Amino acid sequence: QVQVAESGGGLVQPGGSLRLSCVASGIHFRLYDMRWYRRVPGSQRELVAKITRGGRSTFADSVKGRFSISRDNAKNTTSLQMNNLKPEDTAVYYCNADWDGHDYWGQGTQVTVSS
């Protein structure tokens, strides 16, 4: 059974940092590209960051220079380090695992940036 689970969300002040983690079980993790998306109620889902199975990372323009993404294939984990957070980063963040038509999602974790 495949499970994707995010953790690490919470409330943080502007300028602060959070680290989101995603554990994906039941898959050959090293084969999968891993993505982080976010969604604000009433808006479309936004791709925030991606790390390929080869370790190549890409980011949305809105988070470049502030967010980083990493993966640990031994632990079936991907992480999103978010620095210098802004109120507009407030959203539910979702982890996605994708490979060859196999597409799995977590339940999401809320990130709120507010003073």
Structure summary, number of beta strands: 11
Strand-residue fraction? over 45%
In N-to-C order, the SSE pattern is EEEEEEEEEEE
Q: Measured on Cα atoms, how large is the radius of gyration?
A: 13 Å
General description of the model:
The chain is mostly beta strands. Helices cover 0% and strands 54% of the residues. The chain contains no helices and 11 strands. The chain has strands at residues 3-7, 10-12, 18-25, 33-39, 46-51, 57-59, 67-72, 77-82, 91-99, 102-105, 109-113. The strands form 2 sheets. Strands 2, 4, 5, 6, 9, 10 and 11 form a 7-stranded mixed sheet that branches.
Overview features:
115 residues; mainly beta
Briefly say what this structure is.
The protein is 0% helix and 54% strand.
Give the helices and strands, then pairings.
Blueprint: E1 3-7, E2 10-12, E3 18-25, E4 33-39, E5 46-51, E6 57-59, E7 67-72, E8 77-82, E9 91-99, E10 102-105, E11 109-113
Parallel strand pairs: 2-11
Antiparallel strand pairs: 1-3, 3-8, 4-5, 4-9, 5-6, 7-8, 9-10, 9-11
